[in-house]
Amino acid sequence: MSRQIRFNAFDMNCVGHQSPGLWAHPRDKSWKYKDLDYWQDLARTLERGIFDGVFIADVIGYYDVYEGSNYHAIEQAAQIPVNDPLQLAAPIALATEHLGIGITASTSFEHPYTFARRLSTADHHTKGRVGWNIVTSYLESGAKNIGQGGLRRHHNRYEVATEYVEVLYKLFEGSWEEGAVQRDRDRRIFTDPSKVHEIGHKGKYFEVPGYHLSEPSPQRTPVLYQAGASGPGKTFAAGHAECIFVAAPTKSVLKRYVTDIRERIAAAGRDPKKVFIYTLITIITDETEEKAQKKFEDYKSYVSYDGSLTFMSGWSGIDFGQYAPTDVVERIETNAIHSFVEHIAGGDKSWTIDELAQFGGIGGMGPVFVGSSERVADILQEWAEDTDVDGFNIAYAVTPDSFEDIVGHIVPELQRRGAYPTAYKPGTLREKLFGDGPYLPVNHPANGLRDIEAVKRREAEAADASLPLKSVGA
């Protein structure tokens, strides 16, 4: 049995997502992102391919760093227009039985109290198949448009995120005890009031004194995804994430990242093998090498140079429009995605502006693997063995064709080699991924919040400090 490889589909409730310009390809249907049947059809395809899930990215704001304007973003549909991701959870769940649904939401723009209810609702509706991708956001335009004036500094955003998830853990794990909901018709008791508790959170950034509004969902805390690859992002991921996404342009960059993050996870007292790491790639495949290469050349003819640099400028915070195509990308400190600059300006090769635009034109900052099913399977196994990565977060060039090609060609080849699952495990998303129970593992920092004795001790301490913390029946 070969090492098992895992797949996620990387998408967004928008046009084109990571391949600017390819919306114009005659076979691309990403313009149907507004239609639920588009998402349900895609979900069924992914479930046939035993994908762990569909991971739905999101941004609040728009890309206006390139040439100091959002002109090219709007013209090329560079993640604008974009719709809300969380509303896709229910229709995708209705169309599938097993597929996980990863939803991106920002700790910078969503208040934890109301967001906790929205996330619990989605976990109920999907019968426990939801994950939350924790992001801190990187677009100044988003912060300005909700009245914040601008983004917090990068390191400070993770300080906010740490308290944010603490609030959610208290709501998800500690507010409602196991057995609180009784639905006892004879005694006319739906919920035992003594088993529902205020969380009494009063921190630096948030004050949330009360109860969680939702009863515990199948997973309580949905599966936790995180994509930060900067120093603070890796520290946060090591302490909290169950699945980690990275965009590494080369195998050597990926290997260093995986080694580093697994060491950090172990140092945080968690099992580094029970945290899955997925790296961003795009696959272009067909029945033969020749057909795959011809398809790749066809796709490249639709790439938008300005659209690609619109993304690159937005992700890095650097206006690449101010440089000549032959200029070399250099490290510049910005308030955007630090890992992007580290991987490009501090990586294994020097990149000119033109090379950066061409590289990012299909699939964003992940490599593009082109070839027959045998050739691509060889590459995937090589990357998994050489870097210790668990799986691949797959962006499309043209949708749904890119995913249908993978399900039709790559998945069967990997399965033939014993290197890919042939069926889903039963249960919630967390159970399907890790094979344990539906709740967070015992070595996760949120796990202890379900300890009712600890909850009662916090209530007693709060009472001594004259804080308004109590259970419903107190």
Automatic annotation (TrEMBL):
<feature type="binding site">
    <location>
        <position position="230"/>
    </location>
    <ligand>
        <name>FMN</name>
    </ligand>
</feature>
<keyword id="KW-0614">Plasmid</keyword>
<feature type="domain" description="Luciferase-like">
    <location>
        <begin position="26"/>
        <end position="385"/>
    </location>
</feature>
<feature type="binding site">
    <location>
        <position position="158"/>
    </location>
    <ligand>
        <name>FMN</name>
    </ligand>
</feature>
<keyword id="KW-0560">Oxidoreductase</keyword>
<dbReference type="InterPro" id="IPR011251">
    <property type="entry name" value="Luciferase-like_dom"/>
</dbReference>
<feature type="binding site">
    <location>
        <position position="58"/>
    </location>
    <ligand>
        <name>FMN</name>
    </ligand>
</feature>
<dbReference type="Pfam" id="PF00296">
    <property type="entry name" value="Bac_luciferase"/>
</dbReference>
<comment type="similarity">
    <text>Belongs to the NtaA/SnaA/DszA monooxygenase family.</text>
</comment>
<protein>
    <submittedName>
        <fullName>LLM class flavin-dependent oxidoreductase</fullName>
    </submittedName>
</protein>
<keyword id="KW-0285">Flavoprotein</keyword>
<keyword id="KW-0288">FMN</keyword>
<feature type="binding site">
    <location>
        <position position="154"/>
    </location>
    <ligand>
        <name>FMN</name>
    </ligand>
</feature>
<dbReference type="InterPro" id="IPR051260">
    <property type="entry name" value="Diverse_substr_monoxygenases"/>
</dbReference>
<feature type="binding site">
    <location>
        <position position="104"/>
    </location>
    <ligand>
        <name>FMN</name>
    </ligand>
</feature>
<dbReference type="InterPro" id="IPR016215">
    <property type="entry name" value="NTA_MOA"/>
</dbReference>
<dbReference type="GO" id="GO:0016705">
    <property type="term" value="F:oxidoreductase activity, acting on paired donors, with incorporation or reduction of molecular oxygen"/>
</dbReference>
<dbReference type="InterPro" id="IPR036661">
    <property type="entry name" value="Luciferase-like_sf"/>
</dbReference>
<dbReference type="GO" id="GO:0004497">
    <property type="term" value="F:monooxygenase activity"/>
</dbReference>
<keyword id="KW-0503">Monooxygenase</keyword>
